[in-house]
Design brief:
Blueprint lengths: L1 E2 L12 H18 L10 E6 L4 H16 L6 E7 L8 E3 L4 E4 L2 E4 L2 H10 L4 E2 L2 H4 L2 H4 L1 H8 L5 E7 L4 H15 L4 E6 L4 E3 L1 H16 L3 H10 L7 H13 L6 E7 L1 H4 L5 E10 L2
Parallel strand pairs: 1-5, 2-9, 3-8, 3-9, 4-7
Antiparallel strand pairs: 2-12, 4-8, 5-6, 10-12, 11-12
């Protein structure tokens, strides 16, 4: 089974040549905000990357994926993202053999799928959850373009994004990482449709807890300050996974919002690239 593109031509160009040209433009912008001067970087657990249309969040996503390209190769990239449509299983693994994008097909790591299914009953095969979901799909062309090696993906869509589920997911990813090398991409946007100053203030407080690897504080800030982060479950799972690998902190690489593109600063969506380097 091949999972075909759901948002090509909408969130990003539907033709390979146009997509590559856009990546060149995004890379030029990303180079100005993220010069890739990361002396001493040995490894990392993964990144937080946004999932809006490329014209809005593409620079932040480009920064995140260029960071991944600096790391030692990982043959499996775990994709964690929210289930926006609210259909399907609560922790849904793609049942496809390949994911199609305008840049070609990417295989799904069936071995890792089987491992997670046997590891915990919370995981379920469910293609319905992935059929029209954009949060994971939009990451794949970035990986295809920027990673200088062949890889597989492990797409997991989260309908349940509570703390207990996220922590259990992080534990499962750590168990998987003891079998093979993986990198994790937690797909999320930050504040939605807030005035620029409000969005930035809320998002920086949330990112502070993310970089501190403070799962409890992360959920508390989301709740107490009513921050509309759409992918908290994947982020929290990445925090747990990173801490179990010996990670001490996360690092904000770049923050921006949609108003920088549209000029409409009274109602913006926040985007961040956050990395999780290992000491």
């Amino acid at each position: 089974m091949v999972r075909k593109e759901a948002v090509a031509g909408y969130f990003y160009p539907g033709k390979a040549e146009e997509l590559r040209l856009l990546f060149e433009e995004l890379s030029a912008s990303a180079s100005r905000v993220f010069p890739e001067d990361l002396s001493g970087l040995q490894d990392a657990s993964g990144v937080v990357s946004p999932h809006a249309g490329y014209i809005y969040s593409g620079v932040a996503a480009c920064v995140a994926h260029r960071f991944l390209a600096l790391l030692p190769p990982a043959r499996t990239i775990v994709l964690l993202g929210p289930n926006h449509r609210g259909v399907g299983k609560r922790v849904a693994i793609s049942n496809a053999e390949y994911w199609q994008t305008p840049l070609g097909r990417v295989p799904v790591d069936r071995e890792s799928v089987e491992f997670l299914l046997s590891y915990s009953s919370m995981f379920a095969l469910d293609e319905l959850a992935h059929q029209f979901e954009h949060s994971l799909e939009v990451q794949v062309p970035f990986l295809q373009h920027f990673l200088p090696y062949e890889f597989q993906i492990l797409p997991i869509a989260l309908l349940s994004q509570d703390r207990a589920t996220s922590e259990a997911l992080g534990e499962a990813l750590f168990a998987l990482s003891e079998k093979k090398r993986i990198l994790v991409v937690a797909s999320s946007d930050f504040s939605h449709y807030e005035p620029e100053a409000v969005a930035r203030t809320k998002d920086i407080k949330v990112i502070d807890r993310i970089c501190a690897l403070d799962v409890e504080g992360f959920y508390r800030v989301l709740r107490e300050r009513d921050v509309s982060v759409c992918g908290p479950g994947g982020i929290a799972a990445l925090l747990v996974y990173h801490k179990k690998r010996g990670g001490k902190r996360g690092e904000l690489l770049f923050y921006t919002h949609s108003g920088e593109v549209t000029g409409e600063r009274h109602q913006v969506v926040g985007y961040a690239a956050v990395a999780f380097p290992l000491p």
